[in-house]
Write a structure and sequence with these properties.
238 residues; alpha/beta; Rossmann fold; 2 domains; 11 strands; 31% helix; binds S-adenosylmethionine
């Protein structure tokens, strides 16, 4: 399913399965960003693929004019209830923003790597960089592919509701594919995320005109590395 993300993120089930990705989790992520990038009340901040707005709400608390951007109407409805940030609906492959208009752009909790063609991922990063002002920053909070490959939990059952989650690495070894089966309802969803290595992510940044300023391995600021759960890159527009 090429556009799996249009089905999965529109429904209630995503929120049930990822209920631990809550406001507290967002507070930690934003505190980490804040430890390396500061912004003032006049600065514009883009939360790319903002989902239900948990980071947009937290970013707004620190000042700045935050804009949440997402493809899903259902996500944006949730975001509307949570934050006063501006909200824009669209596809990250065609960003509607003026060049040089954001001091900071963030893409958090693996909201990238969804397309089959790498060229589309490159285009996303290039457009983000174009939307940044000179010296602006882009923070990408991504899965750590090395860690995923080594620790893949092939099957998992959730407590309560009858949900079976299976995971595999496929499509020529380039993606992690998660199948979510709601057995009580006989429905299935898929998540498919590109397993970009740390070097490949850094190359996406540098090719688009970003200098990798820092890398973190979790929201507490641990160093990036093979055993870290996340790969968080902070890039500065050169
Ligand atoms: C894993 S969720 C994370 C949401 C949010 N960043 C968070 O941490 O709560 C990924 C988000 O990406 C959005 N998304 C998926 N494909 C997109 C696209 N092509 N353009 C814009 N947003 C997209 C989904 O609608 C969803 O809200």
């Amino acid at each position: 399913m090429t556009d799996w993300f249009k089905h999965w993120f529109g429904g209630e089930e995503y929120h049930e399965l990822y209920s631990h990705r809550d406001d507290e989790d967002a507070r930690r992520a934003v505190a980490l960003i804040r430890s390396v990038v500061t912004w003032g009340s006049g600065d514009r901040i883009l939360d790319l693929a903002c989902g239900p707005g948990r980071h947009a709400a937290e970013l707004t608390r620190w000042g700045g004019q935050v804009v949440g951007f997402d493809l899903s109407r259902a996500m944006l409805r949730r975001a509307r209830e949570r934050t006063t940030a501006g909200l824009v609906r669209g596809d990250m492959r065609a960003l509607p923003f003026r060049n040089g208009s954001f001091a900071l752009a963030v893409n958090l909790f693996t909201s990238f790597g969804y397309f089959l063609d790498d060229e589309e991922h490159r285009r996303v990063v290039q457009q983000v960089v174009a939307a940044l002002s000179p010296g602006g920053h882009f923070v990408l909070d991504y899965l750590n592919a090395e860690h995923v490959r080594r620790t893949l939990k092939v099957t998992e059952r959730t407590e309560g509701r009858d949900v079976l989650v299976t995971r595999r690495i496929d499509t020529a070894n380039r993606f992690v594919i998660k199948e979510i089966e709601l057995r009580d309802e006989g429905r299935r969803f898929q998540e498919r995320v590109r397993l970009y290595s740390a070097d490949e992510l850094a190359a996406l940044f540098t090719d688009a005109g970003l200098r990798v300023a820092v890398r973190f391995g979790d929201y507490d600021g641990a160093p990036a590395g093979p055993n870290a759960p996340r790969m968080i890159l902070v890039g500065a527009r050169t």
